[in-house]
Amino acid sequence: MAAKVYRHELDPVGFLRRSAAVFPTRTAVVHGERRLTYRQLDERSRRLASALLERGLEKGDRVAFLAPNIPALLEAHYGVPGAGGVLVAINTRLAASDVEYILEHSGARFLFVDRELEHLAHVDALETVVIADTGGDDDPYEQFLLTGTASFDLVPAEDEEDVISINYTSGTTGRQKGVMYTFRGAYLNALGEVIEASLGYGSVYLWTLPMFHCNGWCFTWAVTAVAGTHVCLRRVDPDLVWDALQEEGVTHYNGAPTVQISLVNHPKAQRLDREVTVTVAGAPPSPTLLAQMNALNLRPVHAYGLTETYGPHTVCVWHPEWGELDVESQARMLARQGVPNVTAEYLRVADGEMNDVPDDGQVLGEVLMRGNNVMKGYFENEEATADAFRGGWFHSGDLAVEHPDGYIELRDRAKDIIISGGENISTIEVEQAVAGHPAVFECAVVAIPDEKWGERPKAFVTLKPGADATEAEIIEFCRGRIAHFKCPAAIEFGDLPKTSTGKIQKYVLREREWAGREKRIG
Amino acid sequence: MGRVYRSELTPGGFLRRTAAVFPDRIAVVHGDRRSTYAELSRRVGQLAGALLRAGLAPGDRVAVLCPNTPAMLEATFAVPAAGFVLVPINIRLSADEVAYIVEHSGARLLIVDHELAERVPAGIDTILVADTGQGDDQYERFLVTGSGLNGLVQVADEEDVLSINYTSGTTGKPKGAMVTHRGAYLNALGQVIEAGLGYDSVYLWTLPMFHCNGWCYPWAVTAIGGTHVCLRRADPSVAWELLESESVTHFCCAPTVAISLVHDPAAHRLARPVTVVMGGAPPSPTLIDRMAELDFNLIHAYGLTETYGPSTVCIPQEEWRDLPGDERARLLARQGVGHLTAGPVRVEAEDGAMGEVLMRGNTVMKGYYDDTEGTAVAFAGGWFHSGDLAVEHADGSIELRDRSKDVIISGGENISTIEVEQTIAAHPAVMECAVVAIPDEKWGERPKAFVTLKPGHKATEHGIVEFCRGRIAHFKCPDAVEFGELPKTSTGKIQKYVLRELEWQGSDRRVN
User: Fold this and answer.
1) Which of A16, B11, B86, B406 has the fewest Cβ atoms surrounding its Cβ within 10 A?
2) Contacts of B41 in chain A (CB under 8 A)
């Protein structure tokens, strides 16, 4: 095929090539005391790629990484596709059996594993490289890099619709599925993130969001596109995060509401002298949380998406007029999932027959997406792919309403709706009401069976350290804010069960409440 | 049909999205007229519908001959949205040149501004734009015929041609550079990021929209819901007024426009910084200094019609801040590096020598319309040949030294006319200048300068030559200086070839 002069394949690896050429001496990576310039990041990625090829990596081979947010994992985002490999970044919070499943299912040929996580991966057949994360000569990963050459040219994408990475979903039920990302999708989503989060040539990005999670929502590539600085973080310790916010000149970070909650309630929390842009996603933030963030000069950008949409697909684009609303209303506007981001475009909320629901903010429908920001499919799982793509749209499994201004608002996961006396209750609405109580740290609401009403909401609540509240107080608090039938019938205090990515596992709570019954709805 | 994971890239999608997200935001300002994104989107849909109803076939060319008016912006969106190919025509061209483009492109319809009606060639259907926005405007009546029609056609292939942009071409007939949906989309996103456009941007239309589709800013500004401030002509005093009254945040222009802006009596330090993307020719250090004084944030870009407008951008480095002003200005006058979404840009030369600038990738034209030979020449060896000569610095940035034809070879030494020009431009009395080679018995060629002085300023030939001798190698200094107006192309580029022709009359060569 004769190359077209007017076309080059979209490839986010090219962002590193450009930033290394334009800003060779700029700091690309900060990791504790270690600093890498863009030239060094580029050279290390080239070494990684050529060392992999040296060991016999062939085009399309999967290369697994099991590591926290350290330089090696960032380098993998360039060195692996730059060698023609497919990156499989594995969730570090999984159990050993899950890791084993992913390694086997993806058919990974190489495994790079952080020393602290070695106990999770016992696969003898794999070529394994341990990452000591010291950057020193005794680090096996560094030794591996030295077998490569720094002048190796990273291989550009042959076809932009080829797979750049496979990301396994944490999946609340069933086996993990491998979501395939393309070079094209990753490139376009990265550009979309640059624009929506307003990243620029001076940005400093703090890695609170795991890179294994949707390739860090493509910020692994977006930050590099604008030659920003990646500040690594082995774990999201609020103490360390506040230090970095204050000492590294951080301008941006991302995270789920659970991460934000622990940050805003930390003793070190204090208003920053500059605005820090925080993209929040994973679950809708409560109005209370958004108000707390504003007070600290953390500007929230609320985004929504799934592993299947490269991370964020929508963003709640701010309207300047909202600045004139009272804080509570502002927060309510911003708690909505919003509109497709600038490079995502296609999204609908549709009923079971795939007809659009009215934009009345009332009628629930499933969120459907299509286009460049949707995965190529599930790896080696045609059945699941066909099911997810039925009718030519990706089915998110999330239920939302569309407001008259076109902004969508999630009301529930399909399974989390409570139907009580024929009335729908959104667990999220109840959760936000409960979260408004000053003593509440976080909460989850699930349906419990009820003789009379079929289902009733029950709240599981974690209180702030040192704070106090009773069941009756919280229920009363809700009755003052939402319809009485929506108020929890019961409150239970304690820690909430969470997935490895920090999502609250409502199904665990539900299972507990519905034990001994055949159905999980009433 | 259709892969769930793929949508065709088209900049038309930006309007659809922005109209949905910001229906009530001001999309277009034109004098006292204002329209929201909902209105812009509705009018674009109507125009698309009206074009479909006008009996055109898919892929037909629709030409527009308009200054930067709302109609021009609407056509930029509506023509491709309806499945037709946009042909924006330079409004400074003569009737003959317009006729050539209409004929060569095979345009079926011409949307023309009322001030330009006399340049319409015979035999083409026209829609006359009175630019009043009122019901008696023929353009408005035409829009009405599209009411209720869904004129928006899905883009079948992102590599389809969106527009044909004719180059002003210093020699020979104009050539039609074909722009694709994919290229326009990607170049627009690149512009958003490089120019730092955001959801609160207000863009002033000093750069003609007919020029490389306004460097893709109709789409870039719309992508982020910015406001387009229209301008029938780049009058410096009107521009100054709008900069303040409309809280403009960004505009694009060539150095000639910026020169007239900074020398305008209304020039003053801005209330807040305004980002200016400048291309078309390298800004002189003097201009760069003056713009910095007025708080313009200058982004120097470089490209051609064949590269969707800007292909490179000179990204300032932190270290430059600590350099003396003239040194910083010299760095900012470089053309820089390929912008974020551009493909590879390189100089065809070894070891820092001067060579031709070559480009390839998504923001290079698809080819010249109906000109296989011209396309093959331009794409020789799998790269687009810009015809511009540059050096590549150690940091990878390129610096233009000349158009291939504008190098002066004097006694075996190369002289960059740009270097001589920038030296002369630093003289306090000089407003602008051009340097060309003149034949010389002894040296083969020698530089001659053509100079326009600032109003009220004086300088002599001797004074300017002496000024240069204090700054650049003596052999590079002009042998002669002539004062007066400079000939310019319709897009405001100085026509050096006209000056060269004058000097080389009677010789059968233009180099010695």
Assistant:
1) B406
2) none
